[in-house]
Amino acid sequence: MVENVFKNLRWLGHDAFLLRAGGKNIYFDPFKLGTGLPSADIICVSHEHYDHCSPADVRMIQQPSTLIVAEAKAAAQLKGKIMILTPGERREVEGIVIEAVPAYNTNKLFHPQSNRWLGFILTVDGVRVYHAGDTDYIPEMKDIRADIALLPVSGTYVMTAEEAAQAAIAVGAKIAVPMHYGAVVGTTDDADRFAATLAGRVRVEILGRG
Fold it and tell me: 3-class SS at 172?
């Protein structure tokens, strides 16, 4: 089942993904989207920063029935059908389990723990997909279990490639996908370092933007 879910995952650049699973089109942090994308059933927004919470991009894929799942400050920028979550909360939406988990910095000030911003774990078709949001390698990751882990690797605002490799191992990922590079900060070198660090331990898939 992991392979079936993974093959329906598209990286849309930066931290944005489209997951087509459970009969739904699920987006994470839509930002600088291209054209021709399908309408969203669920949009998960990790936090209020412009490169994660982009009202214009949300509108491009939103329909009246679209459910937006977000933390409070991001939700305040958006309109429509909205569910506000805080770390530790869990909801089931039409057979898809959505868990909100912490995402924060430990050695920098861009994403304070006190803001209670989010990562997400979605269980679809029995597979746990973890979108880490903007985060460092944090202690809570030892309690997270994920089959597919989408992890920021660029450093500066988030964890480095080497720290992200630690995160991939901590959550027990079967497949790890690097993100948070090639747009605001970071390059493909960060993704390559992430893959090299995990060689022989965790399967890494570097997705082309699509």
Answer: coil
